[in-house]
Amino acid sequence: MTHTAEPLNLVVVSAGLSVPSSTRLLADRLTESVRRELAGSGRPVEVRVVELRDLAVPIANNFVTGFPAPALEEAIEAVTGADALIAVTPVFTASYSGLFKSFFDLIEPDALGGKPVLIAATGGTARHSLVLEHALRPLFAYLRAVVVPTAVYAASEDWGGTGDALTATLPDRIARAGRELARVLAPAAGVPAQGAPEEAVAADLFA
Fold first, then answer.
1. Which domain holds residue 78?
2. Closest residue by Cα to residue 52 from 17, 23, 84, 90
3. Domain for residue 67, yes or no?
4. What is the 3-state secondary structure (H, E, C) of the chain?
């Protein structure tokens, strides 16, 4: 008897403000990278995108009233119930956006404990790329999530750029980050790994 595997639940949080936005574009490309890596797992992936732009007013109201609107409550439940997250924010004043931070301020500190997260950001210049290590990674460390090693920053010049011999292009970084998140999820997807699963995942991530 053939059993249908339960789909993996991937939730993508995008804090882009414009329509369309480079933040959402980066989120979509990271999502597709993870999909490709898991394609051979024999287990489908369901993707839910949480557009924080659409929740800006409910997020602000929640801070005043203490009660989330139904749409905001649903988004929080989706994030806390996901098997993994992709979180992408634009950079404002050398940090994540206020909207991005405000949303995650509404998440209980232990709600993301042990959850795999891929972090990414967009900005005008590469000078702000350290926001990934100085702001986003500490935020998710506080929330006790497991952030994959490769974080992706996309500056304006990265879109369509060819990079150079010493710097990986944006598509290369997206592919590596997607591979890392997929390999964290691989044991749950039933993908066989050589050796102990924990050792195999760790070896792959830091190869």
1. 8-205
2. 17
3. yes
4. CCCCCCCEEEEEEECCCCCCCHHHHHHHHHHHHHHHHHHHHCCCEEEEEEEHHHHHHHHHHHHHHCCCCHHHHHHHHHHHHCCEEEEEEEEECCEECHHHHHHHHCCCCCCCCCCEEEEEEEECCHHHCCHHHHHHHHHHHHCCCEECCCCEEEEHHHCCCCCECCECCHHHHHHHHHHHHHHHHCCCCCCCCCCCHHHHHHHHHCC
Q: How far apart are CA 45 and CA 28, in angstroms?
A: 14
- Identify the band that residue 141 occupies on the pLDDT scale cut at 50, 70 and 90: very high
Q: Name the nearest CA neighbour of 25 among 161, 159, 177, 168.
A: 159
Establish if 180 belongs to a structural domain: yes
pLDDT digits (tens, 9 = 90+) for 21-78: 999 999 999 999 999 998 877 777 899 999 999 999 999 999 999 999 999 999 999 9
Number of domains in the chain: 1
Predicted TM-score (pTM) of this structure: 0.85
Least confident of 1-5, 51-55, 135-139: 1-5
CATH number at residue 128: 3.40.50.360
Whether 91 is in a domain gets the answer yes
